[in-house]
Amino acid sequence: MKITSVASAAIAACMAAACLCAFAPAANAAEGTITSTKSFPAYAQVRQNLMAEATSTSVEDGSNWGGIESLNVPQTESQAEKEAAAQKKAEEEAQAQQEAEEATQTAAPAEQSVAASRNTYRDTVTTVSAGAGASVDAAYGLIGQSMDCTMLVTLALAARGIDFHGWPAQYANIPGAQVVTDGTMQAGDILIWGNAHVALYVGNGQAIHGGWSGGTVALAGLDVTTSEYSGYPSTVVRIP
């Protein structure tokens, strides 16, 4: 009985070993035939040059991309242009300074002439009335201002309390005035050149004129030339 059990066990072991040997080659054969496949969709368009820049585009109808901007870019100056501009500015400043100096030099003699004439008038002021002196002082104070000849004489008369204004020849009709016929002149006399001009005599052969050389009040001589008259005054009017 014991021998039979041992024999059965040996037979079972041999059969198990035979099965293992049979399965091993089959497994190796199966591993050698495994395959894998994958498919991709077809793509017809081929891009030849991926770095090329697009030269056109399409836009939907009715699309609004805004307006076209207008850029105002200032133009820069070159070094030569900057130097030329600086030189031009320096020349203009030099010319302006020269003109200012010339104007000052021209004005100085005129101011000296006014001062000298006024001093002459003051030296002989005792020979004229107080009213005439007031008119002369007022006329000197108006030198350089802009007004015509009749307004100058009117303001000079107002300084002595006389209210009168008219055409040049009408100043011979001032109430209380006298037309001088002896050829003399005194400071404060009114000088008339026909109906063209009127001025106030201040002595020393000079008078203060309105509307003179550009319309300003100025001290000048007695020889006057206008479009209507030329020469010395035709009438001398004195107010006592």
Automatic annotation (TrEMBL):
InterPro entries: NLP_P60_dom, Papain-like_cys_pep_sf
Segments of this protein annotated with the region Disordered: 54-118
MF term (GO), any: cysteine-type peptidase activity
NlpC/P60 domain location: 108-240
Domain of life: Bacteria
Signal peptide annotation: 1-29
Alphabetized UniProt keyword annotations: Hydrolase, Protease, Signal, Thiol protease
Matching PROSITE patterns: NLPC_P60 (PS51935), PROKAR_LIPOPROTEIN (PS51257)
GO biological process: proteolysis
Biased composition (Basic and acidic residues): 79-92
Biased composition annotated in UniProt, kind: Low complexity: 95-112
Family recorded in the similarity comment: Belongs to the peptidase C40 family.
Protein known as: NlpC/P60 family
Organism (species): Bifidobacterium oedipodis
